[in-house]
Amino acid sequence: MTDPILKLENVRKSYGAVDAARDINLDVAEGEFLTFLGPSGSGKTTTLMMVAGFTQPTDGKIALEGKPLDPIPVWKRDIGMVFQHYALFPHMSVAQNVAFPLEMRAVAKADRRKRVDEAMDMVGLAGFGARLPKELSGGQQQRVALARAMVFKPRLLLMDEPLGALDKKLREHMQLEIMHLHKNMGTTVLYVTHDQEEALVMSDRIAVFQNGRIEQIGSPLALYEAPETKFVADFIGETNFIAGRVETANNSTARVRGMGGQLAGALDNGTAAVLAIRPERLHLHSANTGGHDNILTGTVKELIYLGQSRKAIITLEDGTEVVALEHAAQAEITALEPGHSATLSFRSKDARILADV
Ligand SMILES: Nc1ncnc2c1ncn2[C@@H]1O[C@H](COP(=O)(O)OP(=O)(O)OP(=O)(O)O)[C@@H](O)[C@H]1O
Ligand SMILES: [Mg+2]
């Protein structure tokens, strides 16, 4: 990475006995769309608020373009913000709302007008300037909030669950709009969501938060294909876990219950581990045809037809339930009924072996 535009070093925030952020280290590249993803209470908002300047870190350093942020007051930081509950000023017109950050920065009136028009145009709301926020739909209000955050062309744009209050269809539409705006403006974006699909769709990289820490950071592909912990494998997408102990490990591969997988991190023989395998990587057969890296056997519990795919829930001999996903376009959907015995195969390179913590 070239010099990061934003750098967090050993950042910590405690509220009395609660450690909201424990030890956050993060380099954000210029122009990047980086998402904080994690369960409720994991420290996403706290971390964003420290970057924004609304919350002071208990410890650690935050620097924007190499300069420490802490001496700079919120309104002087070159940072735009959008929050979950679009807090537009209700008594001000849409145009006045969007002009507000420019006024704060003492931009001349003529220039202000031009930039407000540009920003309104950018979010597809040209001509709406004279309305009050309450005269707009939820999605339109959210777009005004976006225009207000971007009108002064900040170096950094922070968004905390900006689409949380919108219905699914509007949310998907706004996701695409935000992605297009990001692409066209080249602004660096820090985005918070607890919706993993939203994170996968929108982000260059995702930082998965748990318990005030970043558990793993990487591209959507890396997080999905190569989770480093059981938590990340479970949080992003659907995963089958088969519990056991690490057997015959070398640097990169190991076995669990006689089945092979890629080892995540250094795990000694005998360590409690799970073999993690995605449903679409488990192949279903009505009989053991042989020639597979790994085989599991069990009984069909349920078959769920999903149109473009079929989900099979299989109970293994020890009672573990696993899910296999078959794509409808594959040559032949395996002929099976609930109660039938079934064989599942998978390739060792498609399975991950993770510490069972
Ligand atoms: N002002 C505060 N005083 C005390 N505790 C706080 C304060 N703000 C946050 N916390 C605690 O810090 C932890 C992290 O909160 P934070 O708001 O960062 O979570 P989050 O990841 O944004 O969650 P959500 O997805 O629910 O928004 C939580 O346990 C929360 O209760
Ligand atoms: Mg939050």
Summary of the model, kept short:
It is built from 8 helices and 20 strands. The protein is of the alpha+beta class.
Task: Give a description of the structure.
The chain has 357 residues and is an alpha+beta fold. The chain has 2 domains: 6-225, 3-Layer(aba) Sandwich (Rossmann fold), CATH 3.40.50.300; 238-355, RNA polymerase II/Efflux pump adaptor protein, barrel-sandwich hybrid domain (OB fold (Dihydrolipoamide Acetyltransferase, E2P), Beta Barrel). It contains 8 helices and 20 strands. It has helices spanning 44-52, 94-104, 109-122, 138-150, 168-185, 196-202, 220-225, 230-235, and strands at 6-15, 18-28, 33-37, 59-64, 67-68, 79-82, 156-160, 188-193, 205-210, 213-218, 240-247, 253-256, 259-263, 272-277, 283-285, 294-305, 309-316, 321-327, 341-346, 352-355. The strands form 4 sheets. Strands 6-7-8-3-9-10 form a 6-stranded mixed sheet, sandwiched between helices. A 5-stranded mixed beta barrel has the order 11-12-13-20-14. A hairpin with a 4-residue loop joins β17 (309-316) and β18. α2 packs across α3, α2 packs parallel to α4 and α3 (109-122) packs across α4 (138-150). The protein is elongated. The two termini are 32 Å apart. The structure holds adenosine-5'-triphosphate and magnesium ion. Adenosine-5'-triphosphate binds at residues 15, 18, 20, 38, 40-46, 194.
